[in-house]
Automatic annotation (TrEMBL):
It catalyses: holo-[ACP] + malonyl-CoA = malonyl-[ACP] + CoA. The gene is mdcH. GO terms for cellular component: cytosol. The lineage of its organism: Bacteria, Pseudomonadati, Pseudomonadota, Gammaproteobacteria, Pseudomonadales. This is Malonyl CoA-acyl carrier protein transacylase. Its EC number is 2.3.1.39. It is an enzyme of class 2 (transferase).
Amino acid sequence: MKILFTFPGQGAQTPHMLHQLPDNEITKKILATSSETLNEDIFKLDTKEALQKTRAVQLCILITGIVYANLLQDQGVSPDFTSGLSIGAFPAAVFAGALEFTDALNLVSLRGELMEKAYPQGYGLTSIQGLLQKKVESLVASVNCSQFPVYVANYNDEDQFVIAGSESAMLKVAELARKNGARKTTKLAVSVPSHCELLSEAAKQLAEAMEKVVLKNPRIHYLSGSTARAINQPNKIADDLAYNMSHPVYWHDAMVAAYERGARLAIEIPPGAVLTGLTKKVMEQGDAVSTCQNGLHNVVMLAKELSQEQ
């Protein structure tokens, strides 16, 4: 049985998430490395006020993901694939062995700053559930213009999408979506218009910074959430990480690719459980579980039980 670790994106954060990490030597070492690398007290990043900033959110998600992935590995659960949604691609690349954790910390810090600077206010993300792709794309195209920029950002499922753009444009699309039968539209806890061309300049600046970082061939298959393909070349992983903020996310396709490659257990690494719901729909003969919902011990026991059955 092949195992997939999935790492969530922005929006999964919760106040005090770093303070609530398991108290053990693995956690202490990762937290100490984080503070030393960033030259700051990382425990100041997870307050409710601090998490209003994109940089703090993304760093907290990166650190939390690396802690829990290492805890699972320490208890005998290792993945065959890693994949991350948006900022989740960074811990996915780190745990796959392609990117050093210290380099990821510095890059994610810069990533968050670039995104904040590009759109400090008035922009974000909104989810739309219950409409098919063509209808969502049509509604977005009917609103998108220089005054009301809006794009389809995430293709999460066959009837679940995320749009990115100005708040006024997203409100227009959400209203049209509800009139056309959408089950639900939700403004997400993300303050920047991720995964669209509005962030193309910020992505170029991050790519320039990544040129100074040395990546390695991954020891675990790294599955891109942007292309839904496994990437093994270091330079292509670097491009994937740098430009994923300006490229749409094809999460459903990525999970289909993992399933077709034999993944039968998808373990969502904290924080969050949204990816588990999306991935369950693909794992027809497998399972998807959230470490947050099920607990670390139960996830470890399930993984070992399923491995013995193979």
